[in-house]
Amino acid sequence: MDAITNLTNGFASALSLEMLLVCFIGVLVGQVTGVLPGIGPTGAMAILLPLSFGMDPGAGLIMLAGIYYGSMYGGSITSILVNLPGEAASLVTTLDGYQMARKGRGGAALSIAAIGSWIAGTLAIVGLMFFAPVLANAALAFGPPEFFGLGLFGLIVLSNLTGGSFGKSVLMVIIGLMLSTVGVDLVTGDDRLTFGVLELSKGIDLVPVVMGLFGLAEIFSVAMAPYQNSKMIKVKLKEMYPNKQEAKRSVWPIIRGTLVGFPMGLLPGPAGFMSTLISYKLEKQLSRQPDEFGKGAIEGVAGPESANNAASTSAMIPFLALGFPFSPPTALLLGGLLVHGITPGPMFISQHGDLFWLVVASMYIGNVMLLVLNLPLVGVFASLTRVPVKILMPIITGIMFIGAYSINNSIFDLWIMLAFGIAGFIIKYCGYNPAPLVVGLVLGTVFEEGLRQGLMMTEGNFLMFFERPITATLLGISIVIVILNVLKIALPLKKSSASNKQ
């Protein structure tokens, strides 16, 4: 009952005109920055962070938090309409959302993404209210060996995310792993694969890589096939919302996506991105029509979008309850609170309970605002497809370059984006899919640091990893998956060889 009473008090404060205004500004800016490729929540929060310094601590935190989870809504829009993820976590949405849009179901995909995001975000807020201490303690159980197991598990399970040739997918993962090693070695302090380039010492940022592989590569493809411009997305007004079959097929993916995304938000690293990958893989395995994935399956939009928003909300748990910013956006939230002399951590709820429940209440309100903004304005977003390609593509290109530069104010990031844009175009032209490369780049650091730090803990005895229950479980599942994949490839070859001998 205490939680209900505290939440009621939080709503009493959050429903004031000032708090409603800053909440609306936050979610609206988040929505817009999610649509604009390259800016993303981190860039928008960094730009508006000075504005929060002059606000009340609650108002500043509400605005910045609104930008954070609001951008998760907006990121799906360009993913579906122009095959360009507004931010990294929307990458998976391009796989089926864009194909739905090309079939005239872009409005349905946008509606399901908005509804799934609202349901997942709301359920995740309930979890934030009631289970924050328990779930935050669970995240503390992960040491370096557990992160190694998680990284290995992710690389194996997600390597063949989009189907097709397993060998090609593994090759892309290996390239991604190699790219993840670029930069300063955190253990020895030595430069690795920097070739004397100072900018590479900090590593290769994910955002310009994703923008290049999936943004510029798409623009290059359009430029190489100008006569296909008229075949780009067309969304009819009467098809703006999902039909009964699409709505029915989306129910369980939304629920499963929420259950996948919520615990992922409790872990350090790109939780939103990883949760979308896992959700997509899960939906593909459970689907009765797995062949539809990659060709416009509504489950491929509903599940990952729900997982993404659940993860972004649950990421607030370790931030508020432990003071651990497990992602760049929550690190900016931490900076906003520290300016006001407030330190998130185990004592935060007891010392600043009114602020905690104010934020929780505002997240409920913000999710409703986002739903109201999205569903009636689906037609407005879909109208972007009516803009001529010769106008739209230069605008998107300009926004991408501005966004890539604004992340670190670095010209070098623009060169990275351009290089991966060319690479992405070549990769697609050769029949490869760049998504596994991104998987390797994202999980490579988690995999390597977990392995090296874990070996230091066990004094080089790898077998001790299996004495830790979580690590042993992850490694055991990974080994079984590898064996099954090897058998799947070897048995047909053996049968083919035996039939040839006969």
Quick summary:
The protein is mostly helical.
Describe the structure.
By secondary structure, the chain is mostly helical. The protein has one domain. Helices cover 73% and strands 1% of the residues. It has 21 helices and two strands. The chain has helices at residues 2-14, 17-35, 40-53, 57-82, 93-102, 106-140, 144-158, 166-180, 206-224, 244-264, 271-286, 299-314, 316-322, 328-339, 348-351, 353-374, 378-382, 389-408, 411-429, 435-457, 469-501, and strands at residues 183-184, 191-192. A two-stranded antiparallel ribbon has the order 1-2. Strand 1 and strand 2 form a beta hairpin. Helix 6 runs parallel beside helix 10. The longest helix is centred in the N-terminal third of the chain and has 35 residues, at 106-140. The chain is globular and about 75 Å long. It comes from Psychrobacillus psychrotolerans. Keywords: Membrane, Transmembrane, Transmembrane helix.
